[in-house]
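Budget justification aside, the reviewers requested a transparent look at the raw inputs and outputs of the sequence design task funded under Objective 1. We therefore reproduce one unedited record. The lines immediately below are the structure tokens for a 230-residue chain.
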């Protein structure tokens, strides 16, 4: 349980959303592009393996995939491989539109936006985060966006979430993080923030609250449930 001012209605608060798996499902495009790369190197991996890449930075994802294929390369070649993968990935991202926003996300963003004491941040490992938010028309909701190019340490390190909180001038204990990856939940907890897991209790059980998605809830309801754990 975290020591919190969360009950104080006057305090500045924030919601910090992860992107892939919370706002949109870009994991399917990462999978296709990484798999194309693996296939071009002569091996394959499964969708189940791909689960392990959720929330993991681009270079760490490549290192894991090469490990699965029993391969290793120099840093220079690895950089070229990440560029190759990203160029392929971008061809899918550039076709995205608002129809790919996950259920009820827009409603939740609108509900938070109406609250004068709340800011909205993004805490994503993706270097493509801004482009994706622009593609699906959601960038206007965000007060501050942290993407993969702004942090040295990836999740489960709390750096990204702490940066978002400090840029929005909100205390970590007044931030609610929405995350689909166990490493992301770990990062939110390390930042001493509230963690709401989007996915299964089995994977995200350490979070303060777990929901399969946003479809059957309102922001008021989420706040009430979190207040009950303070
Ligand atoms: P990029 P998130 C993460 O996004 C993805 O879950 C992860 O699979 C990906 O490797 C990472 O972004 C980096 O993405 O190659 O676009 O920089 O869940 O933190 O929003
Ligand atoms: Mg994610």
């Amino acid at each position: 349980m975290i020591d919190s001012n969360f009950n104080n209605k006057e305090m500045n608060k924030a919601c910090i959303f992860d992107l892939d798996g919370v706002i949109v499902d870009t994991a399917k495009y990462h999978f296709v592009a990484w798999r194309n790369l693996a296939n071009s190197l002569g091996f394959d991996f499964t969708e189940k393996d791909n689960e392990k890449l959720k929330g993991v930075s681009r270079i760490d994802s490549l290192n894991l995939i090469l490990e699965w294929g029993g391969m290793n390369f120099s840093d220079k070649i690895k950089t070229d491989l990440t560029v190759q993968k990203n160029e392929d990935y971008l061809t899918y991202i550039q076709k995205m539109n608002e129809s790919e926003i996950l259920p009820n996300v827009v409603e939740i963003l609108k509900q938070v936006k109406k609250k004068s004491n709340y800011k909205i941040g993004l805490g994503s490992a993706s270097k493509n985060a801004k482009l994706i938010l622009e593609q699906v028309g959601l960038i206007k909701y965000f007060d501050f966006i942290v993407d993969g190019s702004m942090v040295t340490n990836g999740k489960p390190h709390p750096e990204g979430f702490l940066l978002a909180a400090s840029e929005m001038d909100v205390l970590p204990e007044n931030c609610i993080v929405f995350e689909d990856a166990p490493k992301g939940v770990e990062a939110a907890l390390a930042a001493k923030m509230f963690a709401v897991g989007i996915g299964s209790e089995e994977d995200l059980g350490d979070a303060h609250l777990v929901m399969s998605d946003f479809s059957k809830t309102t922001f008021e309801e989420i706040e009430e449930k979190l207040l009950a754990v303070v």
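The mean pLDDT is 96. The pocket of 1,6-di-O-phosphono-beta-D-glucopyranose (ligand 1) is lined by residues 18-21, 30, 53-58, 61, 86, 124-128, 148, 181 (CB under 6 Å). Computational costs for records of this kind are itemized in the attached budget.
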